[in-house]
Design a protein that fits this description.
With 350 residues, the protein is α/β, with parallel strands linked by helices. The chain has 16 helices and 13 strands. It has two domains: 201 residues, D-Maltodextrin-Binding Protein, domain 2 (3-Layer(aba) Sandwich); 104 residues, 3-Layer(aba) Sandwich (D-Maltodextrin-Binding Protein, domain 2), CATH 3.40.190.10. Strands 7-6-8-5-9-10-11 form a seven-stranded mixed beta sheet, with helices on both faces. Strands 2-1-3-12-4-13 form a six-stranded mixed beta sheet, with helices on both faces. Helix 3 crosses helix 11, helix 6 packs across helix 14 and helix 12 crosses helix 13. It starts with a helix and ends in a 9-residue tail after the last helix.
Length: 350
């Protein structure tokens, strides 16, 4: 081969290499290019903007299909504990709740992995009471409703510790949110510990008959102890079955990209998000805007969030709400999928 032929051949090789690079999308990993292992995935959420909100947005804005999950679905439950059977049976490929609901399942032996913490919902829980209850002490001897296994359970125990009532003297009744709202409005119970949008529904149905907050949005309305008072820390978390993660890592990553799209939308298009969620959860747009604004939506796993979730696990054990200690960081947390999707969202050092 003469000199001119060798130059021509080398030029052809270089041109071919550049052409191959040109068709490879920049910044897309080989796993992303391969797509999810399955296109059908159902995630469970609660009927509220703080946990269910981002996933409802994902459904309405087409984010599942955009990430290769053409048959992605959202199943809405009234509370975290209500989703337990569907998650355990495998009907849900992913589930979302507050940390207590997730920890309760793990302590009961359900094999799961938390792959994202995406909303700081501190302050959305509270306690609504009848006119017969003005102080924490007034709760003793009276019926208080709450959804057992949810964050409202340990919230109520914290409430009594902080404001001074003997939880052993309070008649705790297990009630899903919708049932609790009805019981409170009709006078069957004297207080209900829950979250939005159920508080608004109770207040609207009450029509000025005396229902009032004892504590809500990190603020105390307890007579004699009024003012700012934070008594809890709580997060919205996303978790999957351990076996599903093992078999379908790219699908879990696709779900995390869906969640990231939704969280971004919640923060950059809040007014539109509030309108969508107001329709979904049958609230007025102004009320929903307030509820959405009270939540900090951020896909983040850092040392503080891990510490806070471990603190809840330890509290549940101390209060005998679970039987076995859960070491959250060592046994439940799996940061690798989120690191691959959004490396800057994981700063937890282990």
């Amino acid at each position: 081969m003469d000199t001119r032929s060798r130059v021509w051949f080398r030029s052809l090789v270089v041109f071919g290499a550049l052409a191959l690079l040109a068709v490879q999308p920049v910044g897309v990993s080989s796993q992303t290019a391969a797509g999810p292992e399955v296109t059908a995935a159902t995630v469970g959420v609660t009927a509220d903007p703080q946990i269910g909100g981002p996933w409802v947005i994902a459904r309405e804005k087409g984010f599942f299909a955009a990430e290769g999950l053409s048959r992605g679905e959202v199943k809405i439950f009234p509370s975290g504990p209500a989703s337990f059977p569907a998650f355990v049976s495998g009907d849900l490929q992913g589930n979302n709740s507050s940390e207590q609901a997730m920890l309760t399942q793990a302590a009961a032996g359900v094999r799961l992995k938390l792959v994202a913490v995406y909303s700081d919902i501190t302050g959305v829980h509270g306690m609504l009471a009848s006119g017969r209850v003005r102080t924490a002490k007034d709760l003793e001897g009276k019926a208080v409703g709450l959804q057992k296994g949810s964050s409202a359970e340990w919230y109520t125990r914290n409430f009594c510790k902080v404001f001074g009532c003997d939880i052993a003297k309070v008649k705790i009744l297990n009630m899903p949110p919708a049932e609790g709202v009805t019981a409170l409005v009709t006078g069957s119970i004297d207080a209900y510990a829950s979250w939005q949008p159920f508080f608004n529904r109770a207040l609207e149905a009450d029509r000025d008959k005396g229902l009032h907050y004892l504590h809500y949005n990190n603020t105390s309305f307890v007579v004699g102890a009024e003012g700012p008072r934070k008594i809890e820390t709580s997060y919205g978390v996303f978790y999957v079955a351990s076996t599903f993660l093992d078999k379908n890592p790219r699908t879990v990553e696709a779900l995390l990209r869906v969640l990231e799209r939704s969280v971004t939308f919640m923060n950059t298009s809040r007014a539109e998000a509030a309108r969508i969620l107001a329709t979904e959860f049958k609230q007025s747009a102004p009320d929903m805007d307030k509820q959405v604004s009270a939540v900090k939506y951020e896909l983040l796993i850092n040392d503080q969030r891990v510490k806070d979730i471990q603190a809840v696990a330890d509290l549940l054990l101390a209060e005998k709400l679970i039987k076995e200690r859960v070491d959250f960081g060592k046994t439940l947390l799996e940061t690798a999928p989120l690191k691959r999707v959004k490396p800057e969202a994981v700063s937890y050092g282990g």
